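Tutorial, part two.
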Amino acid sequence: MNALKTLLAASAAVLAVFGFASCADSDSTPVNPPLPTNAFYNFATYNGSDASACSFTVQREGDAGSAVITFAQTFTDKQIKTGDRVFMAYTTESGKQYVSGAGKLYNFVNVTGGKPVEATAANSARLSTPVKMEEMKRTGGYLNMVFRIPVSRNLKNLCLTEETNTKDPAYPVLALFIESDVQEGEYRQGRVSFDVTDVLAPADVKGIRVAYKDDAGLDTLTFNKIDAGTIKPIE
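Running the prediction step on this input gives:
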């Protein structure tokens, strides 16, 4: 599966809750600043940098309106690419989380999971390392996940698969395939964001069903196009 290979870099990043947000022209080692009590935490899309600033688009959930937050930091394409998905900590001058304007970026991690790949016998969710799913949320064309998984150093594989739902074609079936380097051990929190825009685009698609494996076996969550889009599984 060539598509899986392209996601391996993201699989390592997704296990870190935060990364460093440093200025692109700085030669000094970035230092993680303390997070203020009024910090916001969001999945977001990186829009790019100009000579003096960068911006990210955030969205509350579902198809709610989006906001563009601008920060006085810049990044190179080697650090992050336009269109990448991140999970970030930030504040805004307005004090509001989903209002466009200037803000201060404290840190972020790249959680880009890419688009779904074709489901095969080799990437079946039944073969996945069990996860403890803490939250699954749709924001526009993205499906965001927060989960815990046993891991020693990093993930071996991570992708979202897609197959036709023959019983109910209006709800394509997506599934999380995730393989850790251990099956037991210390649980670490991970985050990933998948681009499901193309899956939701057809007019006859009413929503998606998303399967994942936990300690009890396979579980499936349903997202309707018209719904807000946040589901917090209860163990």
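Residues 113-231 form a domain with the Immunoglobulin-like fold (CATH 2.60.40.2370). In part three we will examine how such features are distributed along the chain.
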